[in-house]
Amino acid sequence: MVKKVISSFRVIGKVLEWMIFGVLIFLYLVVLSPNLPTKNYISTYIVQTGSMEPVVHTGSIALIQPKQADQVKKGDIIIFTSPKDPKQTILHRVFDIKQKDTSIDFETKGDNNNAPDNWVVPSISVKGVCIGTIPFVGHPAAFLKTPIGFAFLFGIPALFLVILQIKKIREGIEEEVQKRMKKQMQKEKMTDILSIIAILILTGLTSMITIQTVDALFTSRATVSGISFSVKDFTPPTTTVFIQGDLDETKNIIGTNGWHGYGWYESYDNVNLKIQTGDITNILSYQILSGDVSCPAMTDGGYTTGIVHDTNIAGVVNALPNGVHTLCYFGTNPPHFSESAPHKQLLKLDRENPAFTITGVSGTNMGGFYFNNTNTVSVTIASTDGFSGYTRGRFDLTYADASHNCTTNVPSGAISGYPGYNEDNLLPPNQSTSRTLTQTNIPNGNWCFRIWAYDDVQNKSGSQEVKVVIMNAPPVISNVHYLVATPEKSNEPTATISWNTDKDATSNLDWKTSPSSSWIALLDDTTSDRTSHMREIEGLLPETTYYFRVRSKDTGSNEVTSPTYSFQTSNARLGIDWGSDIVLNEFLPNPTGDDAAPMPGGEWVELYNRGTTPVDVSGWYVKDAGGHKLYITTGNSITSNPVTPGLLMDPKEFLVVYRNGGSFSLNNSSLGDSVILVRSSGWWADMHIYTGLLGDDILENKSFARFPDGSATWFDPIPSPGFSNILEEDSIQILGATVPSSLMDNQILIEEKPSLTLSLDNHIALFTVANISSFIHLSYEFSYGTNTELQGVMGSVDLKGENTFTKSDILLGICSTGGMCVYHEGVKNVKVTVTLKDTDGKESILEKTL
Fold first, then answer.
1. 565, 482 in Cβ contact below 8 A?
2. Nearest to 630 by CA among 672, 577, 589, 671
3. Cα(553)–Cα(508) distance, rounded to whole angstroms?
4. Per-residue confidence at 577, pLDDT binned at 50, 70, 90?
5. How far apart are CA 848 and CA 850, in angstroms?
6. What pLDDT is stored for residue 417 in this prediction?
7. Distances (CA, A) of 632 to 209, 597, 657
8. φ and ψ at 2, to 5 degrees?
9. What's the pLDDT score for residue 302?
10. Considering only 5-14, 363-372, 518-527, 579-588, which range has the smallest mean pLDDT?
11. Are the CB atoms for 254 and 243 separated by under 8 Å?
């Protein structure tokens, strides 16, 4: 029974012996695979990190089959030399294949990474394709190279074999005779010796051959069946740091370059301290210092020690303040073999937004709006950033409403060359803080530039808005009118020129009195702030043709000039807007009784439609020289055509507007007044001035009227409100009744009589005689006094039906034949006497004195 038990134990021991031997042989083959003939068909690599999890686990053995680059397909897991570190071998999946001409490059990505690698792998760097993995076997294979692993995987099995050998010797002594024992011992010893020899050979080879991805040697000692061997490792490890960081908008950038090569990050995902070559069980030490400084000696007490391979210290780094920091680190092969000097790596953090100011905008600034007369707008900004530095300016173009409020973004393609946003060229940071943002092909209208600044970590500033107006088309001029009158100043006729533009513009005017003369410009108006324009030419000469043109420039400096217009002065009281169909046709400034009496008494103004189409005068009003307004309503007016609705005036229709109380009032004194007809838009439609200075008599119940209706000539006729104007005494029609003229007070025939005006202009005197068409001869005597003697001139002219005569070249001085003139001083008592003779030989004498 005992023998059977012993025999069973012997069998179990033999099985264990061969199992251990088999495991060791397998591990040896894994270790030796890079140097076996099979490497041309298949080789093994130990996977040290988890970037390919969960497909390839950390600690797995990767089985690699060599393949040509054109045999590699998208999605294959390949092993390749790192483009950034030729000492590093990487196992990643093919993300994309780039083929150009005869070359093939690969983009790669770890299955456990969020983004592709930031490199391109050339085909020459590819070692093969992973055809399979053996999970977790890499750990004991790598462990084999460590002192503890060596003792565990070699010392313990060897000791186990020795114990079995001793046990066999004891059993042999007890069970068999010496002879048989020797014979059996020799047989089994030979087997054990062969096993031990194999282990020793493999151990020696293992100590001389490098497991792929690991280069360090090790120190250990073991004794097997009385044979001892040792290999000593005096080589310290080499170390590196793996960095992967995030920008504000771009994530998972691998390496130390940051966005544009300056190494700045908003935060770090990985700052992994690694054993690059040597034993991955060696340890690392590190410390982080503020600023870009030199690393202290490895004996410095500030180092944190005992850090294992692939430790990520990103959390420590991200807790640091903004700015530049120095990471110092080194590796140690315990107990004494460290790298010669610590490594230095700068870590740069920037979580602060930049700021900027707008330093220039193309166009003309008017109230915060920039008017441009081209379709290209440029905005210049100056930025500030305390850390990574400014690198980019960006703007979004948006629409703006009529009040210049920024509204919606302009979509991509809406404007040629505009992709939905725009930015300046990505120049390196810290070279220039000034950036110019430009957009072309912007159509006319209101627009907004919404601007930001970015730093090198993509931190974005707050936005600022620039409001621009594109005006590359000049204004459109319309409704050019003129009025000639003598407002408030005796003998100083003035032409009032008015016009409209389709947008805000300046109001400028040029004039001359001869087609061949140079233009005379009025005082320049530089403010583009109105669409209704008015300028005046003062001091007009009678019986003179005036030429004028108007000019308007918009806020974008686009200017337009009108055609040339002309008018002739013949009667300084004539002031008609020939562009208006509705005109002042008659008015009564001095009625019998109360001027403000209820209608149909009191003052009134008659309008007349001399055009060919109906006109609605709703909102129109009449005003006097003092600006008092008399609005035209159905309650204060009577029409000659009751059929027309409201205030619509048909062609040839009269509309009488009564003062009917109110502040509007026509002056009855010799100074006279102005009657001005104003449209609802505020534009003057017509104006007439009456004054004793022009020879007008403001008599009671005497009207001023055009004759014929709507014409350019004015007379002092019998009042005929609502009916055609008449010059003879007859039955006078009043709206609503017909009465004999004998029943009307002061209804006498007022004939047009000659009038005389006299004025001085510097050293020239001029006089005008009007209403002389019924006379055939005119003679005059002009005289004035000086400090020394009386001066004078006389002359005569035959009349041929003309209604006005003007003498405008009376010199108050003496000129020589050579053109030299001497003007009289102390001119006084200027007097002109005009004698008119009619066809009957009757004379009329007119006289004026200044």
1. yes
2. 589
3. 9
4. very low
5. 7
6. 83
7. 115, 17, 6
8. -65, -40
9. 94
10. 5-14
11. yes
